[in-house]
Every structure is written in C-alpha cells, then in structure tokens.
Amino acid sequence: MKTEIFMAATRGHKNHGWLDTHHSFSFANYYDPNRMHFGALRVVNDDIVIGGEGFGTHPHDNMEIVSIPLYGALQHRDSMGNGSVIRAGEVQVMSAGTGITHSEFNAHPDEAVNFFQIWVFPNEKNVKPRYDQQKFDFEANKNCLTQIVSPSPDNDGLWIHQDTWFSIGYYDKGIDFEYKLHQADNGLFAMVIEGEFTVAGELLKRRDAVGVTEAEIISIRSESANARILLIEVPMFVH
Length: 239
Known about the structure:
Helices cover 0% and strands 55% of the residues. The chain has two domains: 12-135, Sandwich (Jelly Rolls), CATH 2.60.120; 145-235, Jelly Rolls, CATH 2.60.120.10. Strand 7 (73-78) and strand 8 (83-87) form a beta hairpin. The chain is mainly beta. It has a seven-stranded mixed β-sheet with strand order 1-20-17-22-15-13-14, with no helix packed on it. It has a seven-stranded antiparallel β-sheet with strand order 2-3-4-11-6-9-12, with no helix packed on it. The chain has a four-stranded antiparallel β-sheet with strand order 5-10-7-8, with no helix packed on it. The chain contains no helices and 22 strands.
C-alpha cells in the first residue's frame, strides 16, 4: 500500500472577491508539477461563491464533471437546454464529450454557496454530451457510505464515462469501516469534508485528503462526531 497526503493548507488558493477557491490539483493560475492529477482524477476544486455571483458561460469538452454542493444553492444552465438549481444533498454530473457551454451562478442574492467541482478524465472521447442530477439522503444512511457516482446507469446513483466510483458518508465518532476497491489497479482519493478520519493509517482533518494506491481494502475510522467524507475511486492509468 502506498499513500500520498494532500493537506488542506497546501492546496492552491485564490480569493477573487466573488470567488474563494482552493485547488487540490494544478488549475488556472495554480501550477505544481507534483500535483497535476491523481490517476483519472484531474480537478478537485473547493469553491465558495458569494451571493448573486458565479461563472459566466464557458466551454468544456472531453471531461466528466461532478458538482457537489455542501451548502447553499447553485444555478446551472447549459447549451443542451438544461436549467436547474442544485442544493446540498444533491449531486450533478455532466459529460462534456464533443463540447458544451454552461454557466454556474449562486442561486441566492445574499447567501454564499460552497461546492466541490470535480473533473475526471473520460474513458471514451467525443461522446454525446449529457447532464443529470440526483438528490441523496446522506443523513438517513448515516454511518454507511452512499454511492453517488459509478460507471453504469444500472448502479445506484449517477453515472459517468469512466471506471470510477464516488461515495459520501456521514459518520458518528468511532465508527470503523472498510472500502474495497472495485478494480485492483484503481486508487482511492479520500477527502474529509468535515471532522476527522483516519484513512489507511493517516489522520486527516477538515479538507485534508489522501491518495491510496496498491491496496485492495482500505481501513477507515471516523475520529469525530458529525464527520463527513468523500471517497473517489479512479483508474490510475489514463489512456
């Protein structure tokens, strides 16, 4: 088993006034040759957008994009004709494929929205663009992992064009559990949303993360009350 630590304080950071953002991997003006991606996981941005502001219309292609609001509400519009609001407890996926344009704005004029914007390299290029979103009840499934993204529409949650699995768990203090990788050559990127966890022997606090490779089963323990964690399993080799 190998581990790589991504401490919250070492992320790239930029406060634009309307946007306060942290980057786990190189993005925009933040560049670190040692932090380009974790396998197929290319971007993990922790964005806070003030009321009434947001990202104007911009293009994407050949990328799988997952948005996870932590609090507040995010207004989405795209060139496929979709227009919706996603809130905490909901997850949005978008396959950019052959190309799309979209915008993301804070849906409230006077309250901030905080969301993870996550990009994953696809396993197939130039697919037809698609969009979907789903609401999850993480509290009702407390002390268990809730699968939110997988490679197939036949599985629980949403799906994208990559052999990747996303899960979120809300935990009480002192809960031990294991994560079993779906594919032997995949890796696991585990980020603490809130609270503290020990993952593969590494103690992680709020927004700390660890990348685990060369492992089949990974031990995890919640170390605080009201702890929340995001797990992203991805192929480590991108073709």
